[in-house]
Amino acid sequence: MTVRPGTIAAHVDAERLWRRHMELAQHGATPNGGVDRQALSAEEIAARRTIVAWGEAIGLSASNDDAGNLFLRLAGTAPDLPPVMIGSHIDSQPTGGKFDGAFGVLAALESVEAIVASGARPRRPIDVVAWMNEEGSRFAPGMMGSAAFTGARKLADVLAVRDAAGVSVSDALAAVLAAEPQLPGRPLGTLVAAFVEAHIEQGPILEAEKRTIGVVTGIQGKRTFRVTVTGEENHAGTSPRSARRDALVSAVAMVHALQAAMWDAADVVRFTIGRFEVTPNAPSVVPARVVFSIDLRHPDTATLRDLGDRIPGLCAAAAGRCVVEVRELLHDPPLAFPAAIRDRIRAAAQDLGITWMDIPSGAGHDARYLHYHGPTGMIFIPCKDGLSHHEAESATRDDIAAGARVLAETAFGLSVAE
User: Fold this and answer.
1) 389 annotated as belonging to a binding site for a ligand
2) N or C, which end of the chain has less CB nearby within 10 Å?
3) What is the DSSP letter of 82?
4) 207 in a known ligand binding site
5) Do 135 and 59 fall within a single domain?
């Protein structure tokens, strides 16, 4: 069956897609218009139920796996072939927005609904997927579901992680799967013909360049660390400076040293200390313990390696009378998506008359792990002022629809390719 370019995209319903974004955002809605829908929470359970209902109404078959990844399948004429996967995630930061992750899942759902409406039949199955715990806000690190699916992390290691309240992934995931008893399970690590993830850019470039579609060239590398500084509690009024082992003073010295070492005139290095915990955190007690996070990113493999390798020594040199432990949590090198997938995305945008540009991703995505499992690509759309991980995160109805149209054409093309 020959399908002319633009045929599938013509059946994307912009109003339906926008309405679904607004409806999904009610699960975990915050008073300031954002979303607090953290991984494996009651809010995410409700959101999954809504997505399953929408998918089943189209005729998709829902399933899940042992990592809590959710799948909705559009059958192909050759059902035994590895599927084309499209999707993203629906968990959010505690003060997240309506579009981060959710756009990729809902654009994928709209894509398969457009395929069904067009009367075209994919050769390969097409799976809409919502990966478990991309954000890593409740359970760290993020991208757990895609990492477990692809074998980048052992499921047992994922299940053992606990949140700040002491709840394990294993226990929280059991509640999610118990809420979906009607869904059949599927194995981890199945073959994938291709994966395409649509996402808001989470940066200002597309908006500034007045381009609607970003053809993502790859993802910059990332290293994360947890630094634990141990001193000694003492009385704030009676302990002299010479007797103190102040963990906070030492930690601040480390932060200054790290910030200076990571500074670059070209402003390419991305260095962030986003979490800082002081114990006992009492006004009249010398702090005995500080734990802080480091998020380091760079597009060059050697630079990322060299900067990250300097972190333990810099912390030790600034520790003073305290003891410091630096633990690396994650080291993901930079990657480039295959040219064939990028070419398909560009061609779809050009055929539809939608402006596009090549763009790297500064943020991490589930596509990172899928990249090593099968041919993978990403589609970006603009977000207002480049703002994301924020309740004011916003994207326009037209851009969302344009992204879904490009995704629909790309996914269908991949599904009928030899």
Assistant:
1) yes
2) C
3) P
4) no
5) yes
Q: What is the reported pTM?
A: 0.89
Question: Per-residue pLDDT tens for 246-259?
Answer: 999 999 999 999 99
Both tokens assigned to 180 = 């979906």
Residues 161 and 292 both lie in one domain: no
Q: Which of 53, 54, 152, 137 is nearest to 100 (CA)?
A: 137
In a domain, 2, yes or no: no
Q: Is 100 annotated as a binding residue?
A: yes
- Asked whether residue 264 is marked as a ligand-binding residue, the answer is no
Query: What is the rounded CA–CA span in Å between residue 35 and residue 114?
Result: 27
Domain of 184 in residue numbering reads as 9-220+335-416
Let me know whether 350 and 309 are in one domain: no
CATH code assigned at 230: 3.30.70.360
* Mean of the per-residue pLDDT values of the chain: 97
- The answer on 386 and 310 residing in a single domain is no
From 371, 393, 372, select the one nearest 384 (Cα to Cα). Answer: 393
Helices within 301-361 (DSSP H only): 301-317, 339-352
- Residue 1: which pLDDT band, with cuts at 50, 70 and 90? low
- Output b/e per residue, 3-20; b: 16+ Cβ within 10 A: beeebbbebbeeebbbeb
Question: Are residues 184 and 258 both part of a single domain?
Answer: no
Q: Looking at 306, 332, 358, which one is the last position of a domain?
A: 332
Among the residue ranges 78-82, 330-334, 383-387, 397-401, the one predicted with the least confidence is 330-334
pLDDT of residue 274: 92
| Position 418 pLDDT exceeds 90 | no
Residue 232 falls within a domain, yes or no?
A: yes
| Residue 21 labeled ligand binder | no
Q: What is the pLDDT of residue 330?
A: 86
Give the E-state strand segments of 56-181 in sequence order. 61-65, 70-74, 84-89, 126-131
